[in-house]
Amino acid sequence: MNAYDSEKMADLLYASHGLEKTEHAEEADVIVLNTCSVREKAQEKVFSDLGRLAELKLEKPHLVIAVGGCVASQEGEAIVARAPYVDLVFGPQTLHRLPALLDERRRSGRAQVDISFPEIEKFDALPPARVEGPTAFVSIMEGCSKYCSFCVVPYTRGEEFSRPIADVLREITDLAARGVKEVTLLGQNVNAWLDMDSGDEDLDFAALLEAVSAIPGIARIRYTTSHPLEFTQRLIEAHARLPKLVGQVHLPVQSGSDPILQAMKRGYTALEYKSIIRRLRAVCPQISISSDFIVGFPGETAADFAATLKLIDEVGFDGSYGFIYSARPGTPAAELPDNVDAATKLSRLQQLLAKTDAEAARVAQAMVGTRQRVLVDGHAKRDTAELRGRTDNNRVVNFPGSSRLIGHFVDVTITATAHYSLRGEVVTEEPVTT
Ligand code: SAM
C-alpha cells in the first residue's frame, strides 16, 4: 500500500512541478518520507531519518522536506514541533494535495500540515498512473473499519470507503490499453469493497472481480489484503469461476488461539478461518495461501502459541509474515499489560517463521519439474542477462531468455529452487497468448 502511495506522490510531483525521481538525497530539491506506523520500529525510523536530512538542509536551505503516510497522520503538527526544519506534513488521504501544499509552503514560507480525511476526492485528483511494465497496482478501497485491538490503521488511514465501480473499471481498462496484463487490486480489506454509488448489495467484491475479469487484455488478477471476516461464499465461488483470478491468496489470520483472536477483536475463530480455507481448496485444490501472524500479543500463553503452530500445521501456508506485537498508542491493546518477555517473543517468532519458511520451501521443491506460465516483468535482479517472471502463485522465476519476452507470458519448466526464488528454462521461445 505504501509503495503504491509513494508512486502516486512521484506521479503527482512530476505532473505538477516536473520533479523527477532520484536515488540520491543530495541531488533532491524535495525529499518525501512516506512513513508507516503499523509497528513501533518503523515509526522510530522516521525521526532518525529526519535527523540526517536536517544536516543536508543546513547545506541546502531551499531543500523541501515532506513527511507523508501514517506517522504524519498520527503525529501531525507534533512533527514540525519536534523537527522544525520539516516543511510539509500530509496523511495517506491528503497525498493528492502535495503539489498545492508545496506551492503554499514556497509562497508563505511557513510549514504546511494537512492530515484530514477528505475521502474520495483523492482518487479524482490523481494523475493517470505511469505504466512501467506489464503489471500494475490499482487501489479499490481505502482505510479500515475493523478496529482490531492492536492496529493503528483505522486511526491513521480513516474508515473504509470504496472507490466507485465505474472509476475502478475505467482505470483498469486504461491500464490494459497501455499494455498492462496483470493487476493487483489493493486495499486494507479488499473484500469489504462495495459499490457505494449504487448501494446495490450484489455489487460486492466478487462482482467487481467478475467485472475486472471481463476487461480484454487483463489476463491475471491478484488482490491484497483480504480479511477473513468478509471472505464470503460468493468470493470463494468467484475463485472457482474466474480463471484469471490467480491461485494465491494472502489471508491474515494473526493467531491460531481463540482467546487471543477474541482479544485482538478479529471477529472469527480458528475453526472459522480453517473453514474458509477448506472451502477455497474444495474449489481450487492448488491454491496457495499465505498469512500474517503476530506473536507475543498481551496475555499470549505457551498454549496460545502452540495453537498457532498447530493451525500452521493444519493449514499448510505457502510463506507468511510474522511480527512481534508492538503496542501502538491509541489502540485498545496498548492498555493491556505487555506481559510476554522479549526473549519469549523472539523465540516464538523464530519458531513460527522456521515453520512457514519450511512449508514454503516444500511447495517450491514440489514445483521443480513442473511447467509454469510466468509473466515476464523484466531482467533478473542478480544477473541482468537473465529474465524474471512471476508464476500464478506469485513466485519469482529467473531464467535465460530473449529480452523481447519482457512484458509477455511465457511457459517455463522449473529446474531448481533458489533462496526465495526459482530457476527455470523456457519451453518455447515464443510468448504465449492468453
Ligand atoms: N488489514 C489486514 C488485516 O487486518 O488482516 C492487514 C493489514 S496490516 C497493515 C499488516 C500486518 O501488520 C497485519 O496483518 C499484522 O500482522 C501486522 N500488524 C498490525 N499491527 C501490528 C502491531 N501493533 N504489532 C505487530 N504487528 C502488527
Please tell me about this protein's structure.
There is one protein chain. The chain has 434 residues and is of the alpha/beta class. The protein is built from 14 helices and 17 strands. It has a 5-stranded mixed beta barrel. Strands 1-2-3-4 form a 4-stranded parallel β-sheet, with helices on both faces. A hairpin with a 2-residue loop joins strand 16 and strand 17 (421-426). The model has no long low-confidence stretch (mean pLDDT 94). The structure holds S-adenosylmethionine. S-adenosylmethionine (SAM) is lined by residues 38-39, 144, 148, 150-151, 153, 188-189, 225, 227, 252, 254, 292, 294, 323, 325-326, 328.
Helix fraction? 25-40%
Q: Please tell me how large the radius of gyration is.
A: 23 Å
Summarize model confidence as the mean pLDDT: 94
Strand content: 15-25%
Low-confidence stretches: none
Oligomer state of the chains in this structure: single chain
Named once each, the bound ligands are: S-adenosylmethionine
